[in-house]
Amino acid sequence: MTFRLSFILPCYNVERYIADCLNSIYAQGLLESEFEVICVNDCSTDGTRNIILEYSKVHDNLFLIDHTRNLTAGGARNTGIDNAKGEYIWFVDPDDMVKANMAEPLYEKASTNNLDILFFNNDIVDEHLSYLKTENVFVDTETLSGQDYMVRYFRNQISKLCIVWRCMIRTTFLKNNVLSFPHMRKAEDVAFLWKATSLASSVASVKDVGYVYRSNPYSVANKTPSASVLFSERALFANEILDLLNDTEIEIQQPIRDEMQRALVWCVNSCIDRLSKMPLDKQARFYDEIVSHKIIVNRLKPFMNRKYKLFFSTFGGKWFWMRKTQWLCR
Fold first, then answer.
1. Which of 127, 161, 261, 315 is the most buried (most CB within 10 A)?
2. Are 145 and 231 in contact (CB under 8 A)?
3. Entry pTM
4. Do 15 and 59 reside in the same domain of the chain?
5. What pLDDT, in 10s, does the model give residues 241-252?
6. Domain membership of residue 244 as a residue range
7. How many CB atoms lie within 10 A of CB 306?
8. Farthest CA pair distance, the chain
9. In the beta sheet, which residues pair with residue 209?
């Protein structure tokens, strides 16, 4: 069986919100034979799974997939991609919602124009769903290749192309290009979207609002970053950019290449001050991340300034390294 749309929800401890999210999807006015909802339970420890099961008793097009170990949001989305049977995929975070009556017109825009990716805007609401503002990142555009689109509309600001729930993506495009989210605790969606857009042959955007982002104080994005999250959004993300720049099968236009390299350099030279404000136990865990990712750290050293080359040196032991971190921040 095939569908027009596959909504993929990476679910981890979202019992407070997932009912609102599912209700917004099932209130789109689509026939249930036209779409599927894939909920990937990433080892939730609260009542998330039970709520999904209750919905699955009512909706035959809702599919629950349980992970046996936590793979974070990127891994859960990869599981969704592997199982998707829709023409287009829409990644939806289960603490957010789909804007009322927008799934059909957005799908029609993507399908009619044979798009690999369609971008759109979003509203922001507070935890209690009170409207805060609209993020107008995108305008109505013609269809372009992904790289031409980035150069024309996001030159020197591709950092705005960073959120996967703000677009629909053709499923065959993802699978034919073997596109998946890297195994990271943060910024995995940015790395994924930059590569996908760079590869896409047909991209457009609309100014319409298609998504409702809930400013959730309990979300991972709003928590004080752990050492592994800081390492992920700096070193591991920089490594993903380097992989993309070195991919001989993707001819990246020079303006995009230059901006990606600037982002890479910033990532590997921007975490000492933040790390120095962390408790000593988190600094110790950051050191452990460096030691366990020696190959990646060494690969990034050509892009480090002198201070950061010293900072990322693992010689001298953990506690010596932590004292050195404090000294470098003076």
1. 161
2. no
3. 0.93
4. yes
5. 999 999 999 999
6. 227-328
7. 7
8. 63
9. 121
